[in-house]
Write a structure and sequence with these properties.
- With 246 residues, the protein is α/β, with parallel strands linked by helices.
- The chain is 37% helix and 28% strand.
- It contains 10 helices and 10 strands.
- The strands form 2 sheets. The protein has a 6-stranded mixed β-sheet, with helices on both faces. It has a 4-stranded antiparallel β-sheet with strand order 2-1-4-5, covered by helices on one side.
- The longest helix is centred in the last third of the chain and has 16 residues.
- The mean pLDDT is 92.
- Bound molecules: adenosine-5'-triphosphate (ATP).
- Adenosine-5'-triphosphate binds next to strand 2 and helix 1.
């Protein structure tokens, strides 16, 4: 029998600028400890879905205009992003925004601003280094000089400073060389094995369906298809039509 859901979306609608209905009733579930892929073409509404969940949609003149979002058994729609992070849900946005002139360690410290004491923050930092050893090697390096893959690991590390239960991550492979994509997904795989639940938005369908157990495909603000990752990988029509695989 299935593990309980850590995150549930029921018929979620998002309205931008009070006129553009970008999500038209999206429903999905992330099981506790699960890894779910959110797929679809540009403009389908994948990033909007993540922003609705984490609450950052507000700062983009958007709002959840219908439906319900439940995290860890509690409704979270309309909560501000800081409250959502404190409840154990982090959102790693597209674009790998590191603080360019600061070191890896300083970037992590900024992710740990919520800790009540330096010791607690140190402990969190050590657990990040344990989870992503590459960051420990790079700790004194200036973030702006890291490779794309290393910067992606850094933003993931900064997010796990918040000791989350669920991570939403938007296009982790964007613009990375294939080798780096593998390294970043190895990090995600490892975090997942340590119990983190994951919702991953990815254009790189092939690589994300290797680590996900389940996938949803979006088109024009709706879920048009869902299923076990294995089944999505194997279904010929799905591969061609929705996922662009041949
Ligand atoms: P991409 O991979 O290109 O980010 P996506 O599937 O994540 O695509 P969204 O970015 O969620 O798609 O966009 C969904 C729809 O909402 C698009 O039609 C987009 O133009 C629109 N949209 C996104 N952000 C805003 C905004 N701030 N104001 C108005 N419309 C927006």
């Amino acid at each position: 029998h299935a593990p309980p859901a850590v995150l549930t979306l029921s018929n979620v609608e998002v309205l931008y600028a009070e006129v553009i209905l970008a999500l038209k009733g999206v429903s999905m579930q992330i099981p506790e400890g699960g890894c779910v892929a959110l797929l679809g073409a540009n403009g389908a509404g994948k990033s909007t879905t993540l922003k609705a969940i984490s609450g950052v949609i507000d700062s983009e003149d958007g709002r959840v205009s219908g439906g319900a979002i439940t995290f860890d058994g509690r409704p979270i729609q309309g909560h501000d992003p800081a409250t959502v992070v404190r409840s154990g849900l982090v959102h790693v946005m597209e674009g790998r925004r590191v603080l360019q002139h600061m070191t890896v360690e300083q970037n992590l410290i900024i992710g740990g601003h919520m800790f009540p004491s330096t010791q607690a923050m140190r402990r969190a930092m050590d657990s990040v280094y344990q989870a992503i050893p590459r960051l420990a090697e790079l700790r004194k390096r200036t973030a702006g000089y890291l490779s794309g893959g290393e910067q992606q690991m850094l933003v993931i590390g900064r997010a796990i400073m918040a000791e989350p239960k669920l991570m939403l991550i938007d296009e982790p492979s964007l613009g990375l060389a294939p080798r780096m994509v593998e390294d970043v997904f190895a990090v995600l795989h490892h975090l997942r094995e340590q119990g983190l639940s994951l919702l991953i938005v990815e254009q790189n369908t092939r690589v994300v369906l290797e680590i996900a157990d389940y996938g949803y495909v979006m088109e024009s603000g709706r879920i048009v298809l869902e299923g076990q990752a294995q089944a999505l990988r194997d279904n010929e029509d799905v591969r061609e039509f929705y996922l662009g695989l041949d």
